[in-house]
Amino acid sequence: MAEKIKLLSILGDEQVPAHLARSVIEERLRSAILDGRLAPGMALRQQELATLFGVSRMPVREALRQLEAQSLLQVVAHKGAVVAPLISEDAMDSYGLRVILESEALRQSIPLLDAEDIALARGYIEQLQNETRHAEMGQLNRLLHMALYRKAPNQKLLRLIDNELSEEARFLRFHLSSMGLGKLTQDDHIALVDAAQAGQVDEAVQLLTQHLDKGMQAIRQYLASQPQG
């Protein structure tokens, strides 16, 4: 009963139109997970959510399945779907994968970038310099990186990268300072965009790798600081 009341206070009890149920429930749960209102380990039971939103269990089940695919939920024996840990033990592997995927996307994209693409990237940097809300900064960081990769012809590659960046956004929202998303990171971003604008592919890839290495170091430090279960 206590968890049901807690869910009500977090998500509200506004009824959801049947034809929008899956997408609306998914987005509300995602937002609550990403900004920390739904804490790691909290169980999300299908029937409670269905009652809360005034829908059948089917759209709730589909929404939970989507969130599990995004690594925001885990299915645990005897508990069902629970909010995933803030960052998983395979985060280092994810960053290693990002270096490989994003370096290739940057190589493909830079020769095709035009003035509009560069202006878009610089616009995101300007917003990052002025933004103080952590959730917005995580989203702007993702958009900035994707702006530099957007012209890569390999669309599957871009989808894989976007998924990885979306997962990382959750960690960024809580640990922006340790990840260096301040003056230092904007210097990194500015140098990266400058190299892209100049068509300096090898230099841009090197700058990107160094930038992502800082993220790997921050994640290593975060994981090392957590109590051993």
Task: Give structural notes.
This is GntR family transcriptional regulator. Keywords: DNA-binding, Transcription, Transcription regulation. It comes from Pseudomonas qingdaonensis. Residues 19-86 form the HTH gntR-type domain. The protein is mainly alpha-helical. The chain has two domains: 2-83, Arc Repressor Mutant, subunit A; 91-225, GntR ligand-binding domain-like (Four Helix Bundle (Hemerythrin (Met), subunit A), Up-down Bundle). Helices cover 70% and strands 3% of the residues. The protein contains eleven helices and two strands; from the N terminus they run H-H-H-H-E-E-H-H-H-H-H-H-H. It has helices spanning 2-11, 21-34, 46-53, 57-69, 91-109, 115-130, 134-149, 155-174, 176-179, 183-197, 201-225; strands at residues 73-76, 80-83. The chain has a two-stranded antiparallel ribbon with strand order 1-2. Strand 1 and strand 2 (80-83) form a beta hairpin. Helix 5 runs antiparallel to helix 11 (201-225) and helix 10 runs antiparallel to helix 11. The protein is globular, with a radius of gyration of 19 Å. The protein starts with a helix and ends with a helix. 30% of the residues are buried.
- Secondary-structure arrangement, i.e. CATH architecture of the largest domain: Up-down Bundle
Helix count, per DSSP?
11
| Strand-pairing-aware structural class | mainly alpha
Low-pLDDT windows of residues? none
- Give the name of the CATH superfamily of the largest domain: GntR ligand-binding domain-like
- CATH class identity of the largest domain: Mainly Alpha
Strand composition percent: under 5%
Mean of all residue-level pLDDT scores: 84
Give the termini distance in whole angstroms. Answer: 28 Å
Strand order, biggest sheet? 1-2
Q: How many distinct domains?
A: 2
- What order do the helices and strands follow? HHHHEEHHHHHHH
Rg (C-alpha, Å): 19 Å
The count of DSSP E runs of length 2 or more, i.e. the number of strands, is 2
Tell me, what's the shape? globular
Largest sheet: 2 strands, antiparallel
Helix content: 55-70%
In the CATH hierarchy, the third-tier topology of the largest domain is known as Four Helix Bundle (Hemerythrin (Met), subunit A)
Domain HTH gntR-type: 19-86
Organism: Pseudomonas qingdaonensis
InterPro entries: GntR_C (IPR011711), TF_FadR/GntR_C (IPR008920), Tscrpt_reg_HTH_GntR (IPR000524), WH-like_DNA-bd_sf (IPR036388), WH_DNA-bd_sf (IPR036390)
Pfam family, one: GntR
